[in-house]
Amino acid sequence: MPSTFEDFGAKFLYPDNWTIQARERDDQAEGVTLDLPGGGFFSVTRHFDQASPEELLDQLARSMKKEYPDIETDALAVSAEDDFFIEARFYYLDLLVTSRITAIESGDDLIIVQCQAESREFDRNEPVFGAILRSLKESLEAAD
């Protein structure tokens, strides 16, 4: 049975066996992280008054590169749904990790969704990540 998250203008369904962790709001953003039982996470963050999805994703990619110097990132792309995203792969403790970061425009704000897990866990959960993202987008469209 899916659970529902609803806060800071975001609403989405997620698996009830995932652990939810709220994050503190600050002047620039607020968000939530869901931890997968097999490792990895799904994070949703609303960034207030952000001008450009490309700029914010570029900033996030540079931050990841500082943390993981050997990271490989795909170029910024636009999906069929007009979302901006980047995908990155890097090794951590001998595990290949996949991270996909998507930017969704919502009024003057940007919603950043990051899905990250060890590559096999990521592949297993990719349909779930997609379903959660669709649920979030539908709620944002309904709110506009």
Q: What is the CATH topology descriptor?
A: Protein Transport Mog1p, Chain A
Question: In the CATH classification, which architecture applies?
Answer: 3-Layer(aba) Sandwich
- In the CATH hierarchy, what is the superfamily? Mog1/PsbP, alpha/beta/alpha sandwich
The helix fraction, in percent, is: 25-40%
What is the H/E string?
EEEEEHEEEEEH
Count of separate structural domains: 1
What amount of the residues lies in strands? Answer: over 45%
Give the distance, in angstroms, between the N- and C-terminal Cα atoms: 28 Å
Briefly characterize the structure.
With 144 residues, the chain is of the alpha+beta class. The chain has helices at residues 53-67, 119-143, and strands at residues 2-7, 10-15, 19-22, 29-35, 41-47, 72-73, 77-78, 84-92, 95-106, 109-118.
Task: Record keyword descriptors for this entry.
144 residues, alpha+beta, Protein Transport Mog1p, Chain A, 8-stranded antiparallel beta sheet, two-stranded antiparallel sheet, 2 helices
What does this structure look like?
The chain is α+β, with helices and mostly antiparallel strands. It has a single domain (about 1-144), classed as Protein Transport Mog1p, Chain A (3-Layer(aba) Sandwich), CATH 3.40.1000. The chain contains 2 helices and 10 strands. The longest helix is centred in the C-terminal third of the chain and has 25 residues, at about 120-144. It is globular.
